[in-house]
Amino acid sequence: MITRFLIQGMDKRGLVFLAVLVALAVLVPLANLLLPPGSILHVPTSAMSLWGKYLCYALLAISLDLVWGYCGILSLGHGAFFALGGYAMGMYLMRQIGSRGTYGNPILPDFMVFLNWSELPWYWYGFSSFPFAVLMVLAVPGLLAFVFGWFAFRSRVTGVYLSIITQALTYALLLAFFRNDMGFGGNNGLTDFKEIVGFNVQAQSTRAALFSMTCVMLIAGFLIARGIVSSKLGKVVIAIRDAESRTRFLGYRVDRFKLFVFTVSACMAGVAGALYVPQVGIINPSEFAPANSIETVIWVAVGGRGTLVGAALGAVVVNYAKTVFTSGFMAPYWLFALGALFVFVTIFMPKGILGTAQDWWARRKAPPEASPAAEPAPAE
Amino acid sequence: MRFVSCLLRMIALATLLALQPGAASAQGSPQAAEEAFTRLGADSFSDTNRAIEILIANAHPQAAVIIEALADGRLLAGGGAVVVKTKDGKLLDAKTGAALASEPPGLSAVRLNNGVRRTIQAALGGLGLLNPDAGKRIAAAEAVFKSRDASLLPVLEGAIAKESDARAKAALRQAQAAILIAKPDAPPFDRIAAVDVLRERGDQDALATLRSLPGDSSAGLREAQGRAVSAIESKLALWRAGQNLWYGLSLGSVLLLAAIGLAITFGVMGVINMAHGEMVMLGAYTTFIVQELIRTRFPGLFDYSLLIAVPLAFLVAGLVGIAIERGVIRFLYGRPLETLLATWGISLILQQAVRTAFGPTNREVGAPNFMSGAFEIGQLAITWNRLWIIVFAGLVFAALLAILKLTPIGLQMRAVTQNRRMASAMGIRTGRVDALTFGLGSGVAGLAGVALSQIDNVSPNLGQSYIIDSFMVVVFGGVGNLWGTLVGAMTLGIANKLLEPYAGAVLGKIALLVFIILFIQKRPRGLFAQKGRAVEA
């Protein structure tokens, strides 16, 4: 059944995307570990980590595209799920430090010793075990999304109102995680990680493995999202996007479909955050900033909303541009460029890079009068 | 009973006075003054101390001059003469204040040690108590209240007896009471009376004084003190609640200013303007530029700088708003979420533009005279700038209400809000209404910027810190009418400040955010929701 789905549910674009990811997952670590640093094809570790970060963002973008592009829920708080997943992983990594911290306390992380805490808060229990941490990476964002969505979708909070309260959600979490009393390291967050499942986080081979792992999770995330949107359930979800009231009058429980998609998406964002943290080496409350979540939305918009592949593409393109911009003499102009991107894409490229390219391709191939009817534009 | 207590009190007072022979018996006698000058001439610390006490107790006409000179080391003595050297070097006879023609031989400065300095401090306080200016007497009484210097008790009593000004008398009595509380050997009856006086005063200082009552006091006194402390505490708690309410009103008015423009554009056009905070920032920077120009060109106009900035800020922000509407938002109608993204982009551009032009640091915006300073009502401290901002917010609100209800453009705005297509069919140029609405909303944000420049840092991030709060106000209040915004802003402002003392600033804010998220579930369109079918469209 799975193979049938893979063959039928996948268009050419998706297959190319998967092929590229598989190639990346295999070739980049090999090029990093096996080729000598002088070789042209050698990939430096720093570049690999950077691209690993982009791919985490790509997974986050896919998760957002799932709810925004296919279900019409514009979440301005997806960064919250990303950061929560990151914190869950960060807590595991903190516990792995053990007695190698500055204060040498075998149980308490450094910042707790610094704050004169005498024992580990209950919510830190269990994070010394990797399987538990992985469970939490999925469960915490998922549970938050479930509870939040259950309330919001049941009372039919939609459109701009929903966007605003998702923003309020991530803002509230931002404020909360900045507090030292919360036991998550206050504004310094969690950092100084030593090892992950027994391997040194800094080591080249670990970083290569993390990169491959990110590719694998991105493939998995893409397949899950693809699976959802091309299933029967996905048809209903798309119907909700295009005409919510009509779908409801047809007898579908709109809130339940939305809740399902929203929760799955939050879990996916959590996984992205969990992969992000060991690669960048730190997680702090600024990840909850509403601006981050809005930036994620623009990645999806740039790449092409409602295409999944486009979302991932947009995340990589925008972040690559950001790296190029902010590291050179053009650094002060990055915000101009980003701001202009928001305006330009929404006005001139509502379908994003992928959608625009596709239209152009279709126009070129087919004679004008026989051009296939354009897909109906997603309503809000 | 009253009579007996009164009698007892008088006896106690008489005993007290009798116990102070130097103060009571030497009152006004020339021999005593003579003794003081002899003692000053002797130049020993204990004699100097005593001399100061005598001068004060006698209310010697030259006492102030002499003691001040002593404190500055300008009091010279020698050969039986005591001479004050004025600050410009002239010599005066200490006894009479008459200028001396020649310097008497063998003068040297009267020496000081810490004991003498303390006596001088107390004496200066005592002198103030006898000052002819009632305001100075009150200030001196306050100083004694804080220092609780028991040596001033006789002076105080004398001053109370002579005092005719009611407020000064109360202040003197409170000072006396403060001393009596701290004085274990004072008659118990007086001390109980003192507790009552302090209870009447009823502020933080009175509370501290009462709490300082020595533990070994009599049971009756302690009971009176306990009652007074709890009475003052409950009264202070009320005042504190009042103060928090005031802070809440102040925050609410700021939120109202920041959010009301947003509510208008959201109500009429259904778009969330993420660049709204930047309009506030532009208003604040306009104020800054106006003040800079006035400082360099017309310094005399400084007090009017805000009045000049108000229309300019409205124009600047309003024009930028219209430009945004015509340049970007116009193309995105019917796509509110895309509008949200585009305006976010604009906000980034505006922020960076201001950062490039003015630098990332805070800019100094001064307060004109009528906005600086504070006054007190009871225990409430009210600063003028907050008061004016509340007034300003009220005026802006009233003006907007008037525009919406009384002018043709207001009528058109309301029509478009209620049913855009119908309004269009009736011949209203909805595009023009949109542009004007956006300009109006942005202009009001500019006005908010003028107000905020007085209480917040003028930096490129100014708008960002208010935008989320403004959204909360709009979402909570609903967009049906302006009253929703007013109620929303005031509710959130006051709730925030009332929660703060219990939960802390951050937790209080989180609690409010969670409350709003839950509230939206109950009323998805806010407190004052628009009604009718057009809403769902």
UniProtKB/TrEMBL annotation, chain A:
InterPro entries with a match to the protein in the record: ABC_transp_permease, ABC_transptr_urea_perm_UrtC, LivM-like
Pfam families named among the record's database cross-references: BPD_transp_2 (PF02653)
GO cellular component terms attached to this protein's record: plasma membrane
Compartments where found: Cell membrane
CDD domains, sorted: TM_PBP1_LivM_like (cd06581)
GO terms, molecular function: branched-chain amino acid transmembrane transporter activity
Transmembrane stretches, start-end: 57-87, 130-153, 160-178, 208-225, 257-277, 297-321, 333-354
The UniProt record lists the keyword Lipid biosynthesis: no
UniProtKB keywords: Cell membrane, Membrane, Transmembrane, Transmembrane helix
Primary location: membrane
Coiled coil start-end: none
Lipid bilayer topology: Multi-pass membrane protein
Name of the protein this chain belongs to: Amino acid/amide ABC transporter membrane protein 2 (HAAT family)
Species of origin: Bosea psychrotolerans
TrEMBL record, chain B:
Family: Belongs to the binding-protein-dependent transport system permease family. LivHM subfamily.
Keyword Cell membrane: yes
Subcellular location, record wording: Cell membrane
Signal sequence interval, chain numbering: 1-26
Protein source organism: Bosea psychrotolerans
Transmembrane region(s): 245-272, 304-324, 336-354, 387-404, 471-495, 501-520
GO biological process: amino acid transport
Sorted UniProt keywords: Amino-acid transport, Cell membrane, Membrane, Signal, Transmembrane, Transmembrane helix, Transport
Any one annotated GO CC term: plasma membrane
GO molecular function: transmembrane transporter activity
Transmembrane helix listed as a keyword: yes
InterPro entries: ABC_transp_permease, ABC_UrtB_bac, BCAA_transport_permease
Pfam families: BPD_transp_2
Primary site of residence: membrane
Membrane topology, record value: Multi-pass membrane protein
Name this protein carries in UniProt: Amino acid/amide ABC transporter membrane protein 1 (HAAT family)
Domain of life: Bacteria
